[in-house]
Amino acid sequence: MTSKDVWEHGVISSEQALTIAGELLDTHYPEASFAYAAGSIMRGEGTHLSDIDFVVVFDHLEAACRESRVYKGVPVEVFNHDPETLGWFINDDVERGQPGLLSMVAEGVIIGHRNPLAEQLQREAKVRLEQGPPPLSTAALNTLRYDITDALDDLQGDRPLVETLAIGAVLYPKLAELALRGRHRWNGATKWLPRLLSKVDADLAVKFDTSFRTLFTSGAVGPVVALVEEELSRQGGRYFDGDRRLAPASWRIAR
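Structure (tokenized):
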């Protein structure tokens, strides 16, 4: 069975992924200092469509670079960094409360040279991941409250089902972010949100699932409206009056 067959049949293991990552490092990134192989496959949670997250660290790069490859039939998302660019992107992760790269470094398997820096960076990443995200700033919280309030008003209007479903699709990730960040937990994207909610509060995750499932299957908005009101009340309630956002003075076209 070839590597492509293995991937397409959904039986790729973490050991196979590690072998593939090691070969990719040797053949395509020989000047790299070390790398971290991470992602759902490495955790033993991959599906037949999962890719390998691969953070490759060099002594120095002119600029960080993300690239997608298919190596021996397996998709690989490559994040090229040096220690300084890695630090910048991890800080950005922390500030946004969404620890994509931070998690890759903290949870990944170190491959390549057993560079002491690789282990040091991983220890630091684990500490920052465990500490959780910083609190939302007042401005960020109010923006989120405003956006959710606006979606809630739209959801309760008299409108076609297709519009109601579109509003629900936009509302879900914003409400999940409010629920997670409001509880001082990391936020995520798309498929990760239900998993993160489950880790925080199993009952909360069930509320999200049942209310949005009801909305998307029948168009009934009541359960979602109740959930939104409950989560907004934890963070100060609806927000509209007083919202003001000042554009940078440089945002102009001279005439």
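Residues 112 and 142 are 45 Å apart (CA to CA). The longest strand covers residues 74-81.
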